[in-house]
């Protein structure tokens, strides 16, 4: 099921954003601290299955990346209260989806889009939210 969503969504985002790396990045602890301080809105762009499996960061909004660019854009605008200059941070499983989404949103004029590149499960960018023992909330109804 995820693979059926994955291929078209990644192709669409790849065409929209190109291959350049977007910045800036945040570590998972930096994202948690900024979220807790009210300095940015954290948005989890994984799938409902992933949210149920691991839980989500406290206070994070959720939008399934694989629903496509239009849904992602609407959800991000809603989370940012319509302000493309509002600071937001994106998190996914390992930083791949967030890199594509970050570049896409920057192309739409969002000015403060941060990437939690290590993601929830970890990547070359860091051990990840879960391995760091950062807080999560269960999401059984996701």
Structure, described:
The protein is of the alpha/beta class. The protein has one domain: Oxidized Rhodanese, domain 1, CATH 3.40.250.10. About 40% of the residues lie in helices and about 10% in strands. The chain has five helices and four strands. The protein has a four-stranded parallel beta sheet with strand order 2-1-3-4, sandwiched between helices. Strand 3, helix 5 and strand 4 (about 115) form a beta-alpha-beta unit. The longest helix is centred in the first third of the chain and has 16 residues, at about 1-15. Mean pLDDT is about 90; it is low at about 5-20.
Topology:
Elements: H1 2-17, H2 28-36, E1 41-44, H3 48-54, E2 61-62, H4 69-79, E3 88-91, H5 96-107, E4 113-115
Parallel strand pairs: 1-2, 1-3, 3-4
Structural features:
142 residues, Oxidized Rhodanese, domain 1, alpha/beta, 39% helix, four-stranded parallel β-sheet, single chain, 4 strands, 5 helices
CATH fold group: Oxidized Rhodanese, domain 1
Helix content: 25-40%
Rg result: 14 Å
Secondary-structure element series: HHEHEHEHE
Number of strands: 4
Q: Describe the biggest sheet?
A: 4 strands, parallel
Quaternary assembly:
single chain
| Helix count, DSSP H or I runs of 4 or more residues | 5
Strand order of the largest sheet: 2-1-3-4
What is the second-level CATH architecture? 3-Layer(aba) Sandwich
Unreliable sequence segments: 6-21
User: Strand percentage, roughly?
Assistant: 5-15%
Structural class: alpha/beta
- Using the alpha-carbon principal axes, give the shape: globular
CATH superfamily: Rhodanese-like domain
Mean pLDDT equals 89
Which CATH first-tier class would you pick? Alpha Beta
User: Number of folding domains?
Assistant: 1
C-alpha end-to-end distance: 16 Å
């Amino acid at each position: 099921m995820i693979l059926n969503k994955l291929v078209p969504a990644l192709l669409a985002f790849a065409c929209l954003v190109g291959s350049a790396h977007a910045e800036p990045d945040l570590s998972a602890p930096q994202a948690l601290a900024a979220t807790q301080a009210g300095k940015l809105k954290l948005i989890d762009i994984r799938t409902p299955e992933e949210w149920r499996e691991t839980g989500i960061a406290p206070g994070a909004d959720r939008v399934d990346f694989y629903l496509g660019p239009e849904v992602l854009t609407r959800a991000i605008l809603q989370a940012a209260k319509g302000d493309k200059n509002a600071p937001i941070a994106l998190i996914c499983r390992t930083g791949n989806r967030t890199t594509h989404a970050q570049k896409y949103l920057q192309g739409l004029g969002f000015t403060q889009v941060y990437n939690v590149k290590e993601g929830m499960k970890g990547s070359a960018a860091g051990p990840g939210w879960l391995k760091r023992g950062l807080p999560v909330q269960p999401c059984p109804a996701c």
